Amino acid sequence: xxxDRSASDFWVCVAAAVLALIGIGVTAYLLYERYxxxxxxxxxxxxxxxxxxxxxxxxxxxxxxxxxxxxxxALLVCALVRWQVAALAALFxxxxxxxxxxxxxxxxxxxxxxICEYCVASAIIVTxxxxxxxVRLTILSRDAATGPPLxxxx
Amino acid sequence: MSKKMIVAVIVAAIVVAGVVxxxxxxxxxxxxxxxxxxxxxxxxxxxxxxxxLIAGIPQNGFVLGKPKAPVSIVEYMDYKCPICGLASHNxxxxxxxxxxKTGRATMELRPVHVISGNQSVxxxxxxxxxxxxxxxxxxxxxxxxxxxxxxxxxxxxxVLTDAATTVGLNTTTWNATANGxxxxxxxxxxxxxxxxDTQAAGKGLATPTFVVHGPKGTxxxxxxxxxxxxxxxxxxxSGG
Lengths: 154, 240
Known about the structure:
The structure holds two protein chains of two kinds. Chain A is mainly alpha-helical.
């Protein structure tokens, strides 16, 4: 069976919501450990602790993990709301997330000399979210150009 | 959907990313300088006192004192712990003068994390990172003598950098060491050792914890102590 355009949009939103939930889990864990003064459980050595406790782990005093958590919560809302403005908001958040993740990865490699696997996971999640958002926008643009969605067909 | 709207969103995201990166760069570069802070002045004022206190005493990593000293004193301390600050003010100078300078004991700093919040952890990592450059004691003593409130966020990166600059650390190397995995591993080893030492003595995790070890045994005590406590412990572990 071929999925119609609305069904495609639905599954893209589901995938985006799943990614947002994973992102919420990752950032909430980092934030929890930060506020309890614990070291994150880093499978590949102590890089997470070095990154989390570096001076680059905050922006104007706000932990980067908290910014990430807020971004993923917003992405979850965007995935659940099937309006065009939600897709545009998701594009803004995911593009911002990809750019900031690239910056933070540069800092990890060049300044902190440690890699946090949770940060890498978040970078992958936000990049995949950006790709899904582009797919969603493409579907929405096509829907807008060709009228109401088609019915399911086999 | 309008292509113009999409382009506007993309441009907005790039601009906001630029602003966030700019804010972070400004904050981290200002936290690397900050030499005009109150703490910087206080550190400069205290430096001669600290220099005089440990002048002529060998310093090897975390350990102050002659390697062949029969007694070792380990201090588990938190940079934000007020009782540790009191010890630095009231007791440590006398212990150093009476026992470390005279070659009867060595004293070792082991920074741990007990005060809630991240600042004591960052300070511990920074303190450990000062050790390879032979300045851990100066760095620590300057901070402990100018300690702020336990609950206030006074121990910032700028203050730590001021202390590092005052004691003459190569701050580039120091930063790289503090952000490296080696120091983090040291920190966790110390934290575990502290846990084991206190558990073996039937005590809880409190700072400062002093462990005095000599040929006749080990004595562990904690909290607000006096020189008499050290004298008694050193006499006990030395066998009179």
